[in-house]
Write a structure and sequence with these properties.
The structure holds 2 protein chains of 2 kinds. Chain A has helices spanning 3-11, 35-66, 70-100, 139-144, 168-179, and strands at 29-31, 103-106, 110-115, 120-126, 130-136, 146-153, 160-167. Chain A is of the alpha+beta class. Chain A has 2 domains: 3-32 and 104-179, PH-domain like; 38-97. In chain A, the strands form 2 sheets. Chain A has a 4-stranded antiparallel sheet. A 3-stranded antiparallel sheet of chain A has the order 5-6-7. The longest helix of chain A has 32 residues, at 35-66. Chain A starts with a helix and ends in a 5-residue tail after the last helix. Chain B is an alpha+beta fold. In chain B, the strands form 4 sheets. A 7-stranded antiparallel sheet of chain B has the order 7-6-5-11-10-9-8, sandwiched between helices. In chain B, strands 14-13-12-17-16-15 form a 6-stranded antiparallel sheet. In chain B, a hairpin with a 2-residue loop joins strand 9 (258-262) and strand 10. In chain B, helix 1 (13-24) packs across helix 3 (41-62), helix 2 (26-35) runs antiparallel to helix 3 (41-62) and helix 8 (184-198) packs across helix 10 (223-254). Classes of the chains: A alpha+beta, B alpha+beta. The interface between A and B is medium-sized, with 23 and 27 residues.
Chain lengths: 184, 496
């Protein structure tokens, strides 16, 4: 895989420090891969479709069972339409907002992940505290060439730290970086 | 490798594994006896118990363990052979549990705990005490290189390694306090109440029942006064009974509680009937917590507990076994802390409080809840439920003030500390070398007030423990602490 190309793409602003080893750990705050926006929109739409279908079935069963009036049926239907429209809008609008608020940073000491739009957080894991890592790809992620990096620590609430929306090659290189010269 | 021989469990293992299986079959066995499916009680009992006995025998026959120079190997199973290798360096602690029969016979059940999973890595039921001692020496002496110890105190530590030192010996009076503050009696009564409800005894207790009881007592008092006295007397009696039960529970469970330090190991022993011996290597302590409820404060005592990565909370049972001291006089605390965590000094810590607006925010949250509760009460019980409002408001205001007054945090040389709670006040310590993950979080409400919350995650910070989750901090201070903790964590390698 062409590593330097991957890094400059995921970085957004191609840095000169790409060739310096280790390439991913330059202390720069990096954005996720922009394709994650599209991928999350599709994911959101799929979830919306499933939920709104379930809601529609539920509403129809309710209407048939309660044998309500026409106005009630119309109200339920309008409510369903509004909720579905709202969910679709959210599924389309939310991913870019979330994208803007998510960054990660690697340096010689470890990894920091910033996330959250309203409820913001920074999670800091040190290199030597990493127990093991997984790189996961769901079907949709595979289609977009993305992956989720999962860092496992010996902690309790943060025993599992997921970072999704990475380009697959970058995820693999971060994994290698986090695991290298680990004598634990 | 060649010198390590395969060992069997103690022959009495058969007895105890059958006995423990029989305990598990008690309920199905009772059902069989009570309901007699098809009238063939004997047949069904055989179906239940014969496989159990055979399984017990088979387990004993197939179970072998071997102490290699750096790992414990356990082999078991007849159909599916399973060989488990547990490196000594991964063993967090070894616990011994002896019920009265096992004590009489000089054998013990051994639980070996590592940091993984939800249950002990291996349970060896049962070993002779000599075999246990051999195992323990192997695990904790053999695997620990002396120079790798985290305590730099030179001469003293090496001398301490030779002579075991008693750090805590809990007196009967201390156990009475433990019982009183545990509220265990309440659990017993709750269970009893459940039974009573089951059999519908409660429905008989009404005014007539009380009056008929009173009639048998034949008190020279007017009716209404007698009723009041009776009810009050019953309440006082119940409290005394509860306390007595709690005390009995604590004394039976923790009788002869001692904490002995031998080199790097802390050894805890307690129990009147079932004797428990736990060994915790000192460097494997993840969190040390002090707790002082109102009773402890009044008697100037404190409970000290530790969390290790290997402790698993099985139904709140293990939570009790984390104690270094269920109650010690406050005056003895510094000596205990020096012995357990010599690198940390509680007295020199500079405590810092929460952000100035914290009281208002906690109170606001409480007031919203109070308003909702009151309006629900008014909706369902009528207007007189409005009385609730002033009571709840007073409580919320008092609580938020007291909470903020007693909350705090400190960053020391080798460890950070935090305290919270005003009814039961807890103070906990984490060494920087044990920090796993740091996180700094801001909610929208935090941002408006320039606050943030800081979380320090360690191994073994269970659900019941005192977690380092500092909310309502000043944003700038929290950010600086986050950076500071990050640096301190990076400077120190993590060892289990």
């Amino acid at each position: 895989m062409s590593e330097s190309a991957d890094v400059s793409r995921s970085n957004g602003q191609a840095t000169a420090s790409v060739e310096v080893a280790p390439p991913v750990a330059d202390g720069q705050a990096r954005r996720l891969d922009p394709r994650t926006i599209q991928q999350q929109r599709i994911e959101g739409l799929i979830v919306t479709a499933v939920l709104s279908f379930a809601a529609l079935v539920g509403a129809l069963i309710f209407l048939v069972a309660s044998s309500g009036s026409r106005t009630r049926a119309a109200l339920v239907l309008v409510g369903w339409l509004a909720a579905t429209a709202g969910a679709i809008t959210l599924a389309l609008v939310w991913p870019p907002i979330r994208y803007r608020h998510s960054t990660y940073r690697l340096d010689e000491r470890g990894m920091q992940i910033r996330s959250g739009v309203f409820w913001r957080s920074i999670v800091d894991v040190h290199h030597t505290r990493v127990q093991h890592t997984d790189v996961q790809q769901g079907p949709l992620e595979r289609a977009f060439g993305l992956a989720t990096l999962i860092v496992h620590t010996a902690g309790t609430q943060h025993a599992v730290i997921p970072l999704s929306g990475l380009e697959h090659g970058v995820a693999l290189r971060i994994r290698d970086y986090l695991l290298e010269d680990d004598d634990g | 490798m060649a010198e390590a021989s395969l060992e069997r469990l103690h022959p009495l293992s058969v007895l105890f594994s059958v006995a423990s299986a029989a305990m598990r079959l008690l309920l199905p066995g009772l059902i069989v006896i009570l309901f007699r499916p098809g009238g063939q009680t004997d047949f069904w009992l055989m179906v239940l118990f014969v496989p159990t006995v055979v399984a017990g025998l088979a387990k004993y026959a197939s179970y072998r363990y071997r102490m290699n120079p750096d790992e414990l190997v356990i082999r078991e199973g007849i159909v599916t052979r399973n060989e488990r290798h547990i490196p000594y360096a991964r063993i967090q602690n070894i616990d011994l549990v002896q019920n009265p029969l096992q004590r009489l016979l000089g054998v013990a059940e051994v639980r070996i705990e590592t940091a993984s999973g939800d249950k002990p890595e291996a349970v060896m039921r049962v070993l002779s005490l000599a075999a246990v001692e051999q195992l323990r020496r192997r695990v904790f002496r053999g695997a620990e290189p002396v120079e790798g110890r985290e305590v730099p105190a030179a001469g003293a530590a090496i001398q301490a390694a030779e002579a075991p030192r008693v750090l805590v010996r809990t007196s009967l009076a201390d156990l009475v306090l433990v019982g009183l503050s545990s509220g265990r009696g309440l659990a017993v009564v709750a269970a009893a109440m459940g039974l009573v409800w089951q059999f519908d005894f409660m429905s008989q207790i009404d005014e007539h029942w009380i009056k008929s009881r009173l009639a048998t007592l034949d008190l020279p008092l007017p009716g209404p006064l007698a009723t009041v006295l009776f009810v009050v007397g019953a309440g006082v009696g119940a409290i005394i009974l509860l306390s007595a039960l709690s005390i009995v529970w604590a004394v039976v469970r923790y009788y002869g509680f001692t904490l002995v330090a031998r080199g790097d190991d802390l050894r805890i022993e307690y129990g009147l009937l079932t004797r428990v011996t736990a060994t915790i290597p000192r460097h494997r302590i993840q969190i040390l917590s002090l707790a002082r409820g109102p009773l402890q404060r009044a008697s100037r005592r404190v409970a000290v507990r530790v969390e290790t990565a290997g402790r698993h909370e099985e139904e709140g049972r293990a939570a009790d076994r984390l104690w270094l001291a269920p109650a010690i006089p406050l005056a003895d605390l510094p000596a205990l802390l020096r012995a357990v965590l010599p690198e940390v000094d509680l007295d020199v810590l500079e405590w810092r409080g929460l952000a100035p607006g914290a009281t208002a925010r906690i109170a606001k949250k409480g007031l919203i809840v109070a308003a909702i509760v009151t309006s629900l009460a008014v909706a369902s019980f009528g207007r007189f439920a409005l009385v609730l409002l002033p009571l709840l408001v007073t409580w919320v205001v008092a609580h938020s003030r007291l909470y903020v007054k007693h909350a705090g945090w400190a960053l020391g040389e080798e460890a950070c500390a935090w305290r919270s709670g005003w009814w039961t006040r807890r103070t906990s310590l984490v060494r920087y070398s044990k920090i796993q993950v740091l996180s700094l979080a801001e909610s929208p409400f935090d941002r408006r007030r320039r606050m943030a919350s800081l979380q320090v995650d360690t191994a073994g910070a269970g659900h019941v423990g005192h977690r380092m989750d500092l909310r309502y901090l000043d944003a700038a201070a929290a950010g600086a602490a986050f950076q500071h903790l990050g640096r301190e964590t990076r400077l120190r390698a993590f060892r289990w």
